[in-house]
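User: Quick sanity check before I run a bigger batch. Here is a single chain. Can you write out its predicted 3D structure?
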Amino acid sequence: MKILIVDDDPKYRAFVAQGLSESAMICKMAPDGETALQLLRKESFDLVLLDVTMPGMQGWEVMTVLRAEGINVPVIWVTARDAVDERVKGLRMGGDDYIVKPFAFAELVARIHVVLRHRHERTSFRLADLEIDYIGNKVTRAGRAIDMTRTEYTLLHCLAERSGEPISRTKLLQSVWGLDFDPGTNIVEVQIRRLRRKIDEPFERPLIHTVRGAGYVLEARD
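Assistant: Done. Predicted structure follows.
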């Protein structure tokens, strides 16, 4: 397994890297968010250990950029910030787990294995004739490849993860754009329209539906 450790504390990075290497994991380290993004754009990693509080680009911003660019690498937040609302925020933004410092090293290793096992168990999503390849970040419908922007892919992924369950505009703003406030624009509606043009309009059966007062849902209806 290849792990990226993102933290501004050099002693912490060295400590974690040493421990994970003893568990047969290959580690690379980044002291800040900008360096982490550069590495993730160039190389493939099995998992990222991401701190929240760092100079320059914070962990929240790193996660927002990752998901906006369609980089679907598993992320475990490892931070001293233990407030419940921050844990919830980290998971809603697309994090796979949240660990508070200080932690037992055996727990960190166990959680890494759990996250990777869950990710490997589900490598694709299928609904009717729509298929999402999570590994290759590819989308097809009726066997036809669909070219998507990173934002469109992230939005579709969010809808697919909760297929059959309406997702509110507020939750989409949080999950796709990392926004905890309403920017006062129709960004969600615009991206849903663009997604429908690619996923629904060329085909007979629509899969993206508006649920009045509740948001949007991805499901196959008769």
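Residues 124-218 form a domain with the Arc Repressor Mutant, subunit A fold (CATH 1.10.10.10).

User: Great, the batch can go ahead then.
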